[in-house]
Specification:
alpha/beta; 6-stranded mixed β-sheet; about 40% helix
């Protein structure tokens, strides 16, 4: 009963937005031919009817009646459609408030015998401005799908570690995060992203979680692409919050458990050394580097599968300690307070919200209101954190101002 009420209210709200914007659209189109007006009318309301049908099927048939990329694109289309209409509506509302003020003034300046003022027509110019305003997010978000989703960017950073052994001076580490293979719609572009990283020839390669959105089968068609990730000193990986299947209603706990086992198998097939609260030691020139891998651990509502005490055990004597942990909130919550000898943590998770502005040293994204560390390099004392902006995407199948990232870190011996 509650679901019926919620869907009814949601549809009523969407219809109200549609009706309001439609009035403005028709005013803006009043000088067009009747054929053009009819096309606008049937297209406009056709999208509305289609939206209602999809919402009803999603909520009363099955949320998985459409799978993966198709479902993502459909709901993105609905979101972009109404987000654009809200933009247009804001302009129309501002014009209607002006009309309301003018009407109230007219009541006192030119009273009529009946006590009612003359109707003040809506501005055709303002209606056209509203339609133009509505197309801005439509164009931006569409371009974010067409171009931004796979516009991979290399980001290079040099980090100085005073305790770095001479044998490791100049070592390079590639980082990839948040692949979300269930969202991809362009396999060729994904392959190009992998090739970009391999052209950098990193000595080590880290993957910091979220291989899939929900199900291990999402990555099956991409194993032969991601197994091209190679590095002389190894490819190491950890799990992210999406890898456990926690956001899907499983038929049984057994099915969920098997899904996670299949995901671990996928890491193995790709040649990733998956670290489940454990570490690996790399020895070069008689010096040891510890690579610690923590299962997902996130502050607040996110799952805490990780056990850093366990991952750390046995790494005490390593000259350098590098931690892979998906969620950057782990750094402030556990790493800095308890493990001051972990030199650097590699994380992802935030995607930079897949939306933002970065110009020179200035960067802004809605992500910063949820995460203290949300993109790029952070340093406190002798410890460093790098938050990768993500290779893939989830929900909205695109990126606006926050392109997918391939990170290359170079370690140098000495002080910064």
């Amino acid at each position: 009963m509650n679901k019926i009420l919620i869907i009814t209210v949601a549809c009523a709200l969407l219809f109200a937005i549609d009706w309001y914007v439609y009035q403005g659209a028709m005013l803006a189109a009043k000088n067009l031919s009747q054929t053009a007006k009819s096309l606008i009318k049937y297209t406009f309301w056709g999208f509305t009817v289609l939206t209602f049908v999809i919402l009803i099927l999603y909520n009363f048939v099955s949320p998985y009646w459409l799978k993966g990329t198709t479902r993502s694109l459909i709901f993105t289309g609905i979101f972009v459609n109404y987000f654009s209409k809200v933009f247009a509506a804001l302009f129309l509302i501002s014009g209607d408030f002006i009309r309301l003020g003018q009407w109230l003034v007219s009541l006192f300046q030119n009273p009529t015998p009946s006590g009612s003022g003359n109707a003040i027509p809506r501005s055709e110019f303002l209606a056209k401005t509203a339609i133009v305003a509505g197309t801005v997010p439509l164009v931006a978000m569409s371009w974010g799908i067409i171009s931004g989703a796979h516009d991979y960017r290399l980001r290079r950073k040099t980090i100085y570690l005073p305790n770095l052994p001479k044998s490791l001076d100049g070592i390079t580490i590639g980082q990839v995060s948040d692949i979300h293979s269930g969202s991809f719609f362009n396999k060729t572009a994904v392959k190009g992203g992998v090739e970009m990283m391999m052209n950098e020839k990193p000595d080590l390669l880290f993957f910091t979680g979220d291989l899939v959105n929900n199900e291990s089968e999402e990555v099956e068609d991409y194993i032969d692409i991601f197994d091209k990730f190679k590095a002389p000193l190894g490819v190491y990986s950890v799990t992210g919050n999406h890898d456990y299947g926690d956001y899907k209603a499983w038929t049984s706990e057994k099915a969920k458990t098997q899904n996670f086992e299949d995901l671990k198998t996928a890491h193995k097939l790709m040649g990733f050394d998956l670290l489940m609260n454990e570490n690996r030691m790399i020895e070069l020139g008689g010096e040891k580097v510890a690579i610690l891998g923590n299962e997902n651990w996130g502050a607040g509502r996110f799952a805490k599968y990780g056990n850093l005490d366990q991952a750390y055990q046995g790494s005490e004597e390593a000259a350098v300690k590098l931690l892979l942990s998906h969620d950057p909130s782990h750094w402030d919550a556990q790493v800095k307070p308890k493990y001051g000898d972990i030199d650097m943590m590699f994380a992802g998770h935030t995607h930079g919200f897949q939306f933002g502005v970065e110009i020179g040293d200035f960067k802004w994204s809605p992500s910063q209101y949820a995460y203290k560390q949300w993109a790029g390099l952070y340093t406190e004392g002798s410890q460093h954190l790098y938050v990768n902006r993500g290779f893939g995407y989830i929900g909205y199948p695109g990126r606006v101002g926050m392109p997918p990232e391939l990170t290359v870190i170079t370690f140098k011996r000495g002080e910064a």
